[in-house]
């Protein structure tokens, strides 16, 4: 799977790229038909309250597309690696929720067809 990584006011170092590739490949390894994944990293350099330590000035965003569905997650932290880690956790929760609801729907549909067959 190809992951498009963009940086805004942030250099995409080999270490950051490796962390993203490793972490997000694990998250999506059981997901069929990933159309695309885009990750945007940004650092807020403005001289205001957000530029001080403890103000979460490193931002990460992911957009993951599968057929018929798009997942978007955002995170902010003092450190880019921490923002990427939090981003992965948010995306993982969304995918688990989607998988669970998809399984419930499939199970409900299967039971629904069985009940009609028994009635007929």
UniProtKB/TrEMBL annotation:
The UniProt entry, under SUPFAM superfamilies, shows: Ribosome binding protein Y (YfiA homologue)
Q: Does the keyword Signal apply?
A: no
Q: Which family does it belong to?
A: Belongs to the HPF/YfiA ribosome-associated protein family. Short HPF subfamily.
Arranged from A to Z, the UniProt key words for this protein are: Translation regulation
Under Pfam families, the record lists: Ribosomal_S30AE
Q: Name one GO cellular component term.
A: cytosolic small ribosomal subunit
Q: Which GO terms describe its biological process?
A: negative regulation of translational elongation
MF terms from GO for this chain are: ribosomal small subunit binding
What's the protein name?
A: Ribosome hibernation promoting factor
Q: How does it assemble?
A: Associates exclusively with 100S ribosomes, which are dimers of 70S ribosomes.
The protein's organism comes out as Acinetobacter marinus
